[in-house]
Design brief:
single chain, 352 residues, alpha+beta, Alpha-Beta Plaits, five-stranded antiparallel beta sheet, three-stranded antiparallel beta sheet, elongated
Length: 352
């Protein structure tokens, strides 16, 4: 009896020693690799190792424990239960590892495309595609992982066989139940592939000006100019019209309308406007113009047209030009401001 006890003790020591040795060896190997990879952040291999270190260590731990489990001499029922638990943990570790690997690849690719640059059209395309595709991949991995976990249970496996036998009816029921979810998923795929919107696009939705801040599989977050967040279902952008000011390029035309009297010297106003625009750092040097675009019985309408690199700068440029033009007219041609004319008749009959 004492020999059996000593043998079991030695088996325990051997098993724990193997698990500890493998875990510590893997830990130090990962540490050495990640430390070396700090100077090689542009290397995809080191990027994946950096993201996958923790799930990989956990996976190695469960696999090692599964190998040394026979040395522990547990009863058959307890051994089977532990092996089942280890299988579930192994599947969960593999799931975590795959998710971290996809995020590492996404981070590696996005690092090459700076969305904060001036000409960021290509970067916004890549950011939008990878953001949506990565979320879809994560959902698929999680669904497969949960299915694999459930299939480790005998009763669930039998239930799965029964469902497969009646796949036609089950497919119809699931199709009706998940119709909304599937349409949302396909809308997300459509957004990622056709890209009517991208991350950081300037859009007008629900009469609000804002930028696309986040795109998920179910909703889109628009950051409004006053820092509010507008949350819209992703199907909104496939079913309803909206304005995208940065669909092709970020540059945009801005206009300012000034209403003045008929006596205003338009050419002088035009020359001064050109001078103001050329002095502004917000103007991109492409388009400038001032024209009489409308007339009424009291005033004429002057439209000052100018271009800027993006919508934010266009807004600031418009405000600046409007202020300077009004100030110039007030100081140089105050008689040309809008006025109401009247006429007095000296010989008009007296009103009795």
């Amino acid at each position: 009896m004492q020999d059996i006890t000593e043998t079991m003790s030695w088996n325990w020591y051997l098993a724990c020693g193997c698990v500890l040795l493998v875990f510590l060896s893997s830990y130090f190997i990962f540490k050495v690799i990640t430390r070396r990879g700090r100077d090689q952040k542009k290397n995809l291999f080191f990027k994946i190792i950096e993201h996958c270190q923790n799930p990989a260590l956990l996976l190695i731990l469960f696999l090692t424990f599964n190998l040394v489990l026979p040395l522990l001499k547990f009863p058959v029922s307890l051994s089977g239960f532990l092996r089942h638990i280890i299988s579930l943990c192994t599947i969960a570790s593999v799931t975590w590892l795959l998710i971290q690997a996809t995020r590492a690849i996404e981070s590696f690719v996005l690092a090459k495309f700076d969305i904060g640059s001036q000409d960021n059209l290509a970067a916004r395309k890549i950011h939008t595609q990878l953001s949506v595709i990565n979320k879809i991949i994560v959902v698929v991995i999680c669904v497969i992982s949960i299915s694999a976990m459930l299939m480790t249970f005998d009763k669930v496996r039998q239930l799965g066989t029964s469902i497969l036998a009646s796949a036609g009816i089950a497919g119809i029921i699931i199709g009706f139940a998940a119709q909304r979810s599937l349409s949302t998923l396909f809308a997300g795929l459509q957004i990622a592939l056709t890209q009517p919107i991208r991350i950081d696009d300037v859009v007008i939705v629900e009469n609000e000006w804002g930028r696309i801040e986040e795109i998920t599989l179910t909703y889109v977050i628009v950051r409004i100019w006053d820092l509010r967040r507008l949350v819209l279902p992703i199907t909104y952008f496939t079913e309803k019209p909206f304005q995208n000011w940065t669909r092709v390029t970020a540059d945009i035309l801005g206009s300012v309308f000034i209403y003045v009297d008929y006596t205003v010297p338009v050419q002088k106003i035009r020359e001064k406007f050109f001078e103001f625009v050329e002095q502004s750092k917000l103007w991109d040097g492409k388009v400038r113009g001032l024209q009489v675009t409308n007339t009424t019985e009291k005033t004429i309408e002057l439209r000052a047209l100018m271009s800027a690199r993006n919508a934010s700068e266009a807004w600031e440029l418009r405000c600046d030009m409007r202020e300077k033009l009004v100030d110039f007219i007030q100081k140089s041609y105050p008689d040309s401001l809008p006025k109401v004319r009247g006429q007095l008749f000296k010989d008009a009959p007296e009103i009795l």
